[in-house]
Design a protein that fits this description.
- The complex is a heterodimer.
- Helix content of chain A is 25%, strand content 27%.
- By secondary structure, chain A is an alpha+beta fold.
- In chain A, the strands form two sheets. A five-stranded mixed β-sheet of chain A has the order 1-2-3-5-4, covered by helices on one side. In chain A, strands 7-8-6-9-10 form a five-stranded antiparallel β-sheet.
- In chain A, a hairpin with a 7-residue loop joins β1 and β2.
- By secondary structure, chain B is α+β, with helices and mostly antiparallel strands.
- Chain B has two domains: 192 residues, GHMP Kinase, N-terminal domain (Ribosomal Protein S5, domain 2); 106 residues, no CATH class.
- Chain B is built from ten helices and twelve strands.
- Chain B is elongated and about 100 Å long.
- The chains are: A alpha+beta, B alpha+beta.
- Chains A and B meet through α1, β10 and α4 of A and α6, β11, β12 and α10 of B.
- Chain A: This is Exosome non-catalytic core subunit rrp46.
- Chain A: InterPro entries: ExoRNase_PH_dom1, PNPase/RNase_PH_dom_sf, Ribosomal_Su5_D2-typ_SF, RNase_PH.
Chain lengths: 260, 361
């Protein structure tokens, strides 16, 4: 498992003082995230919920002080975890999650950061022993129009079959290439980017899909976008990666830990 | 001491039935109140709409006299004002204009923009700067103070939307030196930088759709002064009259937001039921466990009543963004059906935009 070039580097409990922590390095884009989870803690009276635990997510940037982008990242992670953590098991408490971006190719890019942040957070929640409904795994897929000159690790790319719907106008789009967890150089050439998070059972936890229109804006950007049937195919592929490989990665990472 | 007689009396007689007025029920148990409404057949929301019905909206453009373009959008009790103000960004001699037009760098956080701003310029994203302000008293939940999480997230989302949809044609933001015979990139002497300010007057759910619609309408109605480079003075001069429109895309993209409300399953077995609500208000948003936003465009020719291009008669839709946050109950089939609804709503938006007399100021 560890020999595969697509397996992330995971180090569990690098911070011995926190209840659970994890350092995660994306195998291809080399984005490194360090998260720490503490909880259940005492909650500030302002944030106390009578029959649920309060979840607090803080994303700390790799450069400078936190801004608008970090606030958005933490709100996305917060809403994803809200449905994973069984918050009614610890009412009137606080579960605090701090995620530090250690290394990233592009510190402003939301899709490049989101997948490692979610995976790392879920692993550290497992280590901290926070009760969760299920586990999830996130994957970032970039769709490229053509695969010319794309430097990728073996197994990182796969083709997406001809776009469905039987629309004759779209047959030339059948040679689309999908890259898993792309770096910033591949993402800058991508046609669209999809961050998909699935639970172990195959439920969709989070979708952040974006079209990157080409051209200098205005009328040249008309007619971009994708058909919904293309998205369904991509989501199926993402589900397969998350439910089979992602769960396997979590299992292998936790198996190395002898005792909790 | 005084409680004793009442206990005795309640033991003897029938306990009084626990009834509330509707308004009290609505406040003390919002989840149950909403579920009871949605379990009716046909399901009706507390506000009288059916699950897939969106609120009627009104649009007024160019009501602010000091802005270059403005729009007021009201959908139900959500009211949003958007103002566009253009400022001139001069390209210093020796600056490479191509740096202003890089597509994929989208620095938003002020600290992170040092890469491009430190060099003295702005990227494509830097030319259009959206900001969202939730005015004091727009909703009970957002008290006075610095911009909270929602306002910041919205600003970033709108910035991302402007960037990825490439809504504005970059060419209409360039200021050229008309007189010189240099090649086209050397003729660029400056840019229009657009400040897009969105002020939420009243917030009753689904602010993203309203804000995005206001931005598109305001940009479409904007008229900038005609600016050109004066060679003798070596400065950019503006004509007093406002007659330079900002050219937008032909097929305008619009967002549609859905909220998923969980329903209890009477049998207590199998999957829990849930219902998707189009255009949720804030009461429904508070109870929603999942929010789905779809950005889609619809072919203009089909909207205007010409023969539909696809044989099935459906509107030809292109999805440009899907965002789903929280929860786990929305499946692929939901997303597919919602994308069709989003297409018809986008068509509705486009029709109202063309109907609105976008008269120059």
């Amino acid at each position: 498992m560890t020999s595969s070039p697509l397996t992330p580097e995971i180090s569990l409990n690098p911070l011995p003082q926190s209840d659970g922590s994890c350092q995660y390095t994306c195998p291809t884009s080399r984005t490194t995230i360090l998260t720490s989870v503490n909880g259940p803690l005492e909650v500030r009276p302002k944030d106390e919920l009578p029959n649920h635990a309060t979840i607090e997510v803080v994303v700390k940037p790799g450069i400078g002080v936190a801004g608008v982008r970090e606030t958005r990242l933490s709100s996305i992670i917060h809403s994803t975890l809200q449905s994973l953590i069984l918050t009614n098991h610890h009412p009137r408490t606080l579960i605090q999650i701090v995620a530090q971006i250690v290394q990233a190719e592009d510190h402003t890019s939301l899709p490049l950061l989101l997948t490692p942040l979610i995976n790392c957070t879920i692993l550290s929640l497992l280590i901290a022993g926070i009760p969760m409904r299920t586990v999830g795994w996130s994957v970032h897929l970039a769709v490229l129009q053509d695969g010319k000159g794309v430097k990728s690790v073996e197994g990182q790319t796969f083709g997406l079959g001809g776009s469905g719907g039987g629309d004759e106008m779209e047959t030339e789009e059948s040679e689309q290439l999908v890259v898993r967890n792309p770096g910033s150089d591949i993402l800058s050439r991508a046609k669209s980017s999809h961050t998909l998070t699935f639970s172990k059972e195959g439920e969709i936890l989070l979708i952040e899909s974006l079209e990157y229109s080409q051209g200098s804006g205005g009328e040249s950007a008309d007619g971009q976008g994708w058909d919904i049937s293309d998205f369904v195919k991509l989501a199926e592929e993402g589900k397969r990666i998350c439910c089979e490989e992602g769960v396997e990665v979590i299992r292998a990472a936790l198996a190395e830990r002898k005792a909790f | 001491m005084s409680t004793l007689p009442s206990q005795v009396s309640s033991g003897n007689s029938q306990p009084p039935p626990l009834t509330f007025s509707t308004s009290l029920f609505r406040q003390i148990s919002p989840a149950l109140y909403l579920q009871r409404h949605l379990l009716h057949s046909p399901p009706t929301r507390p506000n009288g709409r059916s699950p897939f019905q969106c609120r009627d909206f009104t649009l007024t453009t160019n009501s602010l006299s000091h802005a270059h373009g403005s729009a007021v959008v009201r959908a139900g009790d959500t009211a949003v004002v958007c103002g566009i103000r253009g400022e001139i960004l001069t390209v210093a001699p020796g600056d490479d204009p191509s740096r202003f037009e890089s597509y994929h760098s989208s620095p938003t956080s002020a600290t992170h923009a040092c890469g491009s701003r430190g060099a003295g310029g702005a990227s494509w994203g830097g030319l259009i700067v959206p900001n969202v302000e939730l005015s004091t008293g727009c909703s009970k939940k957002y008290p006075l103070g610095p911009p909270g999480g929602l306002a910041q997230t919205l600003s970033d989302q709108l910035h991302e939307l402007i960037n990825v949809t490439k809504l504005v044609s970059l060419d209409s933001l360039r200021i050229y030196d008309k007189g010189s015979d240099l090649d086209s990139t050397m003729k660029i002497k400056g840019y229009w930088s657009l400040y897009v300010d969105v002020l939420c007057i009243s917030l009753d759910g689904n602010i993203l759709d309203a804000a995005w619609y206001a931005i598109v309408a305001a940009l479409k109605s904007s008229r900038l002064p005609l600016a050109c480079w004066n060679q003798t003075e070596e400065r950019i001069f503006c004509d007093a009259s406002l007659n330079h429109p900002i050219s937008l895309r032909q097929s305008l993209p619009f967002t549609t937001t859905f909220a998923l409300i969980p329903l209890p399953n009477p049998e207590g077995c199998g999957d829990e039921a849930a219902v998707l609500l189009n255009d949720p208000d804030s009461y429904e948003e508070d109870e929603a466990c999942e929010i789905l936003t779809i950005l889609s465009t619809t072919d203009l020719s089909t909207v205007q009543g010409h023969a539909p291009q696809s044989p099935s008669g459906r509107l030809r839709t292109r999805v440009e963004k899907i965002e789903k946050k929280g929860g786990w109950k929305i499946g692929i089939s939901h997303i597919e059906s919602c994308s069709h609804l989003a297409a018809s709503k986008a068509a509705q938006y486009i029709q109202s935009l063309t109907k609105e007399q976008l008269a120059p100021m």
